[in-house]
C-alpha cells in the first residue's frame, strides 16, 4: 500500500468517525467543546480559554460554537465581574445533551478504537 493510499484510508476513517457522531447526532468535536465548557463550571468559559482547552484558534472556536448556539445548546452571557467580557455557557438543553453523550461516550470510543485498530492492521 502506498503512502497516499494509507493517508486516504486514515482520512476516510476520520471522516467516518466525524460523520457518525458519538450519539444523538453530535460530532466528536462538538462533544469536546461541550465537555470543555462543562468542565469550566458555572460562570462559563471565555472563548480564548475554550480555544486553549480544545486546541483551536479563537476564530475556530467561534465557528464551532455557531451551530451549537443556533441549536440552543450554548449561549453567551456577560461576565458578572466584567461587563466587557462574554462567557460561553451551556443551556439546560446543552447540559442535557452533554450528560446524555457522556453517559455513552466510553462505549462509542471503544467501538472507534476497534475500528481504528482494524484500519491500522490493514495498513501494515
TrEMBL record:
GO MF term list: DNA-binding transcription factor activity
Annotated transmembrane regions: none
InterPro entries: HTH_MarR-typ, MarR/SlyA-like, WH-like_DNA-bd_sf, WH_DNA-bd_sf
Name of the molecule in the record: Unannotated protein
Domain HTH marR-type: 1-124
Matching PANTHER family: HTH-TYPE TRANSCRIPTIONAL REPRESSOR YETL, TRANSCRIPTIONAL REGULATOR, MARR FAMILY
SUPFAM superfamilies: Winged helix' DNA-binding domain
PROSITE patterns: HTH_MARR_2
Gene Ontology biological process terms from the UniProt entry: response to stress
Protein source organism: freshwater metagenome
